[in-house]
Recover the amino acids of this structure.
C-alpha cells in the first residue's frame, strides 16, 4: 500500500462525504435564504423563525435523498471491500 493509494482513497472518501451532504446543505441554505428575505421584507427579527423551516427542509431532503445516499455509500464500501486483496500487496 503506497502513499499515493492512501491519499487517493482518502480523497475519494472526502468527495463522497461532500457529495452525500450536498442535498441537505443546499436545502438548508436555500430555505435559510428565503426566510432571511422574508424577515427583511416584513422586518420580523425573530431568531427562532429560521430554525424550524431549516430543520424541516433538511429532514425532507434526507427522506427524499436517503435511497440515493445509501446506494452511494454501499457502492463505496463494496468497492473498498472488494479491493482489500490488492491493498495487501
Amino acid at each position: 500500500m503506497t502513499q499515493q493509494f492512501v491519499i487517493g482513497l482518502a480523497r475519494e472518501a472526502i468527495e463522497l462525504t461532500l457529495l452525500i451532504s450536498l442535498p441537505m446543505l443546499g436545502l438548508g441554505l436555500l430555505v435559510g435564504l428565503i426566510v432571511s428575505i422574508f424577515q427583511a421584507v416584513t422586518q420580523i427579527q425573530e431568531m427562532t423563525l429560521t430554525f424550524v423551516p431549516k430543520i424541516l427542509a433538511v429532514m425532507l431532503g434526507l427522506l427524499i435523498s436517503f435511497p440515493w445516499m445509501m446506494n452511494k455509500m454501499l457502492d463505496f464500501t463494496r468497492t473498498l471491500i472488494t479491493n482489500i486483496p490488492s491493498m495487501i500487496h
